[in-house]
Design goal:
Layout lengths: L1 H29 L9 H22 L4 H11 L11 H25 L1 H11 L14 H18 L3 H19 L6 H7 L6 H5 L6 H4 L9 H5 L29 H6 L11
Helix pairs in contact: 1-7, 2-6, 3-6, 3-7, 4-5, 4-6, 4-7
């Protein structure tokens, strides 16, 4: 079972990625929430190129995947769930929830620490918010995130199956909650009780600093409510809000080379 999970991890994650990317991209065409001034032709080449680069960099720097780290921890008896006797169903759920909580605090850390924000702000510098924004992260941030994730997986002793489920969920929900898609208000209100919705997460991409520093969750919406970072709607409304950050608002900032260089730029209007 363990060897099979490790062998099929790229196929499983690749399938989830492709299905959700295509499905949400089509949903954006059929039911767009916000009009976009900067269209896909200007934004998608850089956003999709960064995904390919991130994947390559992670594979080169971390030959051991997150699932592989879970298997090593299980083999050597490392981590909480490898020493505590508990039902497997409970361990699986607790591992997924624990990993999601770790990602929430990691996200807050990348906003709070100035040099980490320099890496993370590339994600926020997209001039629109759609399915590809959920994939747009600087390679250095991806490497740091992977390192943190490996440590958390080892400390938890999370089973390989739980890690695979979490990784697939994180990828899928990131594309979903960044999607420029329209949901009925009643559906969104009920749905955001169990998962971060596009309407909820879009507030996080507001140009307003107080709104940028809210709604940090990717998968589960509970952490923002529990730790006081939840904001229901942007002050200007979903259609009136401005997406992005003040420092990088020119079309050429969407090019791959400019995106990669952003952490090393100190603009006059950085906001942090």
């Amino acid at each position: 079972m363990s060897a099979m999970l490790l062998a099929h991890e790229p196929l499983i994650r690749g399938t989830v990625f492709t299905v959700f990317l295509l499905a949400i991209a089509l949903w954006e065409v059929a039911a767009r929430r916000r009009p976009q001034r900067m269209d896909r032709r200007h934004r998608w080449p850089g956003n999709l190129s960064i995904v390919a680069l991130d994947t390559l960099v992670v594979r080169l720097v971390f030959p051991l995947s997150a699932v592989g780290a879970a298997l090593v921890a299980a083999e050597r008896g490392w981590g909480l769930f490898n020493v505590v006797d508990a039902p497997m169903w409970l361990v699986l759920i607790a591992s997924v929830v624990g990993l999601d909580l770790a990602i929430y605090f990691q996200h807050r850390l990348f906003h709070a620490v100035p040099w980490l924000w320099r890496l993370h702000r590339m994600h926020h510098a997209d001039l629109e918010c759609d399915v590809t924004t959920g994939l747009r992260f600087h390679p250095l941030e991806i490497l740091m995130s992977m390192g943190i994730k490996l440590v958390v997986i080892t400390l938890l002793g999370a089973p390989a199956l739980a890690v695979l489920v979490f990784e697939a969920l994180l990828n899928a929900t990131s594309m979903f909650n960044h999607g420029n898609v329209r949901l009925p208000a009643g559906v969104d209100r009920r749905l955001r009780l169990v998962v971060v919705t596009p309407e909820m997460h879009r507030v996080h991409h507001s140009i307003v600093r107080e709104e940028t520093d809210s709604n940090f969750g990717f998968n589960l919406p509970w952490w923002d409510r529990l730790f006081g970072t939840y904001r229901d709607q942007p002050a200007a409304g979903q259609l009136g809000m401005t997406i992005g950050i003040e420092a990088f608002r020119e079309p050429h900032d969407l090019r791959l080379d400019r995106m990669l260089h952003q952490p090393f730029v100190t603009p006059h209007r950085d906001g942090k």
